[in-house]
Amino acid sequence: MGRETPPVFHRKREIQRLRETVNGTDSFLDKAKRYTDITELPPELLWLFIERIVVHKKEVTWSKHAPQTVEIYYNGIGYVGSGQQDVEEALEAPEPQDAEKPRQAS
User: Are 85 and 67 spatial neighbours (Cβ–Cβ below 8 Å)?
Assistant: First the structure.
């Protein structure tokens, strides 16, 4: 009776992870509220808010215009996707072929 089934264990672990994320987010927001009028970005502020920055290799080496992914991990929150990749993928996606074409009134 004391042993938890694997799905229950994983759910409890996920709930704990989400609680930690919420606590980290609250802490991040508390810090951010102290700095509402930032006119410059000194290293101390970067260290306060940024955990790490990961710069990936370019898709095409030696190209000036090739896309390059940069991930910013925030203290207490972790990585927050920018959504830019989703926008780019949506723009590049072909239109569905089986979509109905608008009909003209007869």
Answer: no
Measuring CA to CA, how many Å separate 37 from each of 5, 48, 49, 75, 93?
A: 50, 16, 15, 20, 40
What is the C-alpha to C-alpha distance for residues 39 and 51, in angstroms, rounded to an integer? 21
**Nearby residues of 98 by Cβ (< 8 Å), 6 or more positions away:** none
Q: What is the pLDDT of residues 33-91, one digit of tens each?
A: 887 787 887 888 888 888 899 999 988 888 888 898 889 898 888 888 765 555 455 55
Bridge partners, residue 79, by sequence = 73
Contact between 71 and 54 (Cβ < 8 Å) = yes
